[in-house]
Amino acid sequence: MAEDLEDYTIIKEGEAEILMSVKNQVFYNKTQVNNRDLSIAVLRTFVSKRKEEHEAMLSKRTKSAGKASCKDAYEPAVEEESNGSALDNEKSNGESEVHKEISQDEPCSISEEPMKSSEGNHRGELKPLKVLEALSASGLRSLRYAREVEGIGKVVALDNDKASVEACQKNIKFNGSVAISKVESHLADARVYMLTHPKEFDMVDLDPYGSPSVFLDSAVQSVVDGGMLMCTATDMAVLCGGNGEVCYSKYGSYPLRGKYCHEMALRILLASIESHANRYKRYIVPILSVQMNFYVRVFVRVYTSASAMKNTPLKLSYVYQCVGCDSYHLQPLGRTVSKDSSVRYLPGFGPVVPQECSDCGKKYNMGGPIWSAPIHDQDWVTSILKSVKSMKEQYPAYDRISAVLTTISEELPDVPLFLSLHNLCGTLKCTSPSAVIFRSAVINAGYRISGTHVSPLGLKSDAPMDVIWDIMRCWVKNHPVKAQAPDQPGSVILAKEPVLQANFARAVASLSKAQAKKVARFLPNPERHWGPKLRAGRQITSKHISLLGPEAVNEHLNHENSEEPEPKRPKTDDASDPTSSS
């Protein structure tokens, strides 16, 4: 590292260190430490799960091969017995008895050696993980993968910006022999590279500045069967309904602007990935889906199966959102009809709602399609959380990611989207019951309810909307409200008598385990201006104070001012100048 380090800042995160230029030539965001820590936790669990799956496959193959070899060894003896003479029969019977005794005591002794060698061959098939970071910038993520996750053999870091690739190569050398032996950096278009390396990488990581939509088609092709795709989307204004037509053009779904918009963003992204995978007879299985800070991040496994791909319409739904109240309903895209051993795939029944909302009489907005199947695998979430807690010193953002994983572990996995208790009360213009009281009423009515990691005020429940509004009607009877105009949604809802008489007695399960233990679940940002940063290459000016903070902006401006300007070239006498003296 012969270059002068005055123009660089050394940034340490986890076990990796990088050199960052103060001129904003290469993108780096400190906020994404949560993203990187969570990715490392998932990748560690993926390594262990992959090993377990491989050992289970070997065990299954060993048993099936053992049965087949024993059967092949026994059949010639039976054939010889049936075709021999009477004298030979006596002899063969004796031999047959011996063979039977041997086969009972040592059923696979004949094939013992071949099985040992074949098992050794199979064990050799599980190679170290090959990882691709499609948009690497400084290479910090790739370096952390290589240095902190055991079982990784190679990390390929791509970028189509020359300055980023040079910075990444510099950082690889700066991190020593382990990084040099495992990480390689290339100047390439990620889309072309992934298309030309189909089914080559065990894990592909997409973390672009903005939308990942243009990378999804090539990404789902470059993952091996059973491999993992990690994908981040930071264009939340688009995914959350700010520009619905733009979202449809990028992801193939129309978003709705409800309190659940951030979870809907997750489900839109999953539906888009599934759509791209289906074009190549592949499908996805979500492991973990997280909304955090200013982005969404999904972790999915990619499999190939033309028959399993047919189930995709069963995992997608349209959403009907009432414009007057918080009522929403899901319309599944497809359904199945089973007859004997055959299954028929048919269009879903619809519509699931009338023209006007049955609760308040207003119209519906329709959005989607979204992924309506589970967005987490709870077994994986439990394993990831357990692994994180056992290695807490190795995660700089341990408090944040453990809080998120704890909340996710308590979510209802089969309930898409959620309600906001404050919005329900806002519609009725009433005082809000505590979350514990409302949860108790839902549980006492015979339904399930949980929180959501997306919002501290969000509540997931399998109770239908008419039950939710009946509970709120009973609450308002005990806590009267001022009269409203008769055409207001709240007035229309309260004009109806409740069919269900709510029981607000505190239920045992009204608090989750984490709440009962007072485990922190929603943490404040560790510092000010904890959010998105300026795109690399753009000049930092005073107008970026709200984004970066005054200290960072002033430091950069002072550094620019301190740089000495290049000396001007001295004027030279020109002989042809008529004004010059001879």
UniProtKB/TrEMBL annotation:
Enzyme Commission numbers on file: 2.1.1.216
Biased composition annotated in UniProt, kind: Basic and acidic residues: 88-103, 113-124, 553-574
Catalytic reaction list: guanosine(26) in tRNA + 2 S-adenosyl-L-methionine = N(2)-dimethylguanosine(26) in tRNA + 2 S-adenosyl-L-homocysteine + 2 H(+)
A GO term, aspect molecular function: tRNA (guanine(26)-N2)-dimethyltransferase activity
Swiss-Prot/TrEMBL GO biological process terms: tRNA N2-guanine methylation
Gene source species: Salix koriyanagi
UniProt-annotated stretches for the region Disordered: 56-124, 550-582
One cellular component (GO) term of this entry: nucleus
Record-stated family: Belongs to the class I-like SAM-binding methyltransferase superfamily. Trm1 family.
InterPro entries, sorted: SAM-dependent_MTases_sf, Trm1, tRNA_met_Trm1_C
UniProt entry keywords in alphabetical sequence: Metal-binding, Methyltransferase, RNA-binding, S-adenosyl-L-methionine, Transferase, tRNA processing, tRNA-binding, Zinc
CDD domains xref list: AdoMet_MTases
EC main group: transferase
The protein's name: tRNA (guanine(26)-N(2))-dimethyltransferase
PANTHER family membership: N 2 ,N 2 -DIMETHYLGUANOSINE TRNA METHYLTRANSFERASE (PTHR10631), TRNA (GUANINE(26)-N(2))-DIMETHYLTRANSFERASE (PTHR10631:SF3)
Function as written in the Swiss-Prot or TrEMBL entry: Dimethylates a single guanine residue at position 26 of most tRNAs using S-adenosyl-L-methionine as donor of the methyl groups.
NCBIfam families xrefs: TRM1 (TIGR00308)
